[in-house]
Amino acid sequence: MPESTARPHFAAARHMMGIAALFAAMLTVFAAFAPQPAAAAGSLVFARASDAVTLDPARAPDLESTKVIANIYEGLVTVAESGTEIVPALARSWESSADGTRWTFHLRHGVVFHDGTPLTAQAVVQSFMRQIDPERSDFAGDSGVSRFTFRHITAVSAPDDHTVLITLDAPFPPFLHNMSMATASVISPAGGDIPAGTGPFRLHTWEKGRRIVLKAHTEYWRGAPQLDTVVLEVIPKASDRLTALNVGAIDAFDGVTNDIARHASVQSSIQLSSRTGLRIAYLAMNTQKPPFDNPAVRRALNMAVNKIPMQTLIYGNTAVVAHNVIPETVWAYDETLPPYVYDPAAARDMLAQAGYPQGFTATLYFCPRPFYPEGIEALIRNELAAVNVRLDIRYTEWTEHLKATGNAEHDMCIISWGGYNSDPDNFFYPLFHPHNAVTPHAQNRAFYTNPQVSRLIEKAQQETDPGIRKEHYRRIQRLIRNDAPWIPLVYNRELLAHSVDVTGLRLDATGVVRFYGAHVRHD
Description:
The strands form 5 sheets. Strands 1, 8, 9, 10, 11, 12, 13, 14, 15, 16 and 17 form an 11-stranded mixed β-sheet that branches. A 4-stranded antiparallel β-sheet has the order 4-5-7-6, covered by helices on one side. The chain has helices spanning 12-15, 19-33, 63-72, 121-132, 145-150, 175-179, 238-246, 258-264, 295-304, 307-315, 344-353, 376-385, 398-406, 425-432, 451-462, 466-483; strands at residues 43-48, 77-79, 86-88, 91-96, 102-107, 153-160, 163-168, 201-207, 211-216, 229-234, 252-254, 270-285, 319-321, 360-366, 389-395, 412-418, 486-499, 502-503, 506-507, 513-514, 519-520. The protein has 16 helices and 21 strands. The termini are far apart. Helix 2 (19-33) crosses helix 7, helix 14 packs antiparallel against helix 15 and helix 15 packs antiparallel against helix 16 (466-483). By secondary structure, the protein is of the alpha+beta class. The longest helix is centred in the last third of the chain and has 18 residues, at 466-483.
């Protein structure tokens, strides 16, 4: 259950931890990991902050689950390393009808699932329909992400063993990008609690909350991976992940904070990899609860938070200040939109005019994550206290955080969103359309609704002219800025730390790390 009592926070000095403290911590971490051997030949140990919630592609609500799923399963198409272009995966080619409502995919021959079952078009039909048709006995349930991925699909059929026909109810330009998402992965018709995929690695064991072990899929259609084994360890603290890398207990980790990047950058045995991402960290205000049902209150709080100290003290080079509700890397980003100006005096006046001259108290749900580390909530609490807004911070663990905020239990929450693909619809529809403000699995955690925004989102989904689509999205951004359901915080960069003996790791713009092609040199 969430904790409502205060607890110690990081001060700036704690963020700037010293080398001596780091090496003192090594002894403890080394002892914790000593029973687990460092990577043997053909294996790689990778650490991350949290465990997966699920390994069923149909039910995955979060990045930690997707990180594993992307290495076990595959869809018809995928996103190129550039992060924008759609390229073949299980489908070797495809074409659409002139009106864009009928899509035909031609499957590769000779592909097998981890359980030995051959890939067929009927397996694709079963994988998709278990997320689309609630009348099926194997219906996976409404995960929210499934609803987003498969909307507009009215039929999926298999004219023959290697042809899949998908019918839409209207032209839908983001369709191919949605088909590249982890949710659209194809699973074995044999089923199971954790069904088999066709990807380069198969699930071997899962000690929930501790580690996942993957083994190479030796019959992988692109050729067997160089790694025999990938061990995914859960190490919640970034400093402990760095220590584990230094003592040889792990080979690589993600969730690299500013402090860790600074320390790792001066160590010759460690290499940092980074790329501009598709992720934004933000503070959502529950617009269905007073006083956040008043746009003036939400605008006032946008003027009350100074993001510069946040970026300087907590993020450094791992993020940049956000002025909009989508990252600058998304092609529809409106660079002309003026940000809210930090002005606590004006914020206090606006709150008084809105009927809150003495401010108010609100509950902020918070679960520290690499994208919004511990300390950020203390800065925001202090900033809002200056305008008489008092925060009761409730600390949660990751699964509980997703559950509580998806069920609208919060007044405010800090969370992030990483685009599953580079299309703007992947931000605006899940985060700002009322279809996704449905408990208990809401992705629209501001529970924001504006009929004009909703109509524009729907128009942009069906507009085939890129210029007109972009104008729709720019109008949406202006309307959302005025309604202010969020306080955008930062645009995160994706960072990865690994031993210099590791090569070939691929870091996607989505934050997923691909292990196919990776190799660990062992002396």
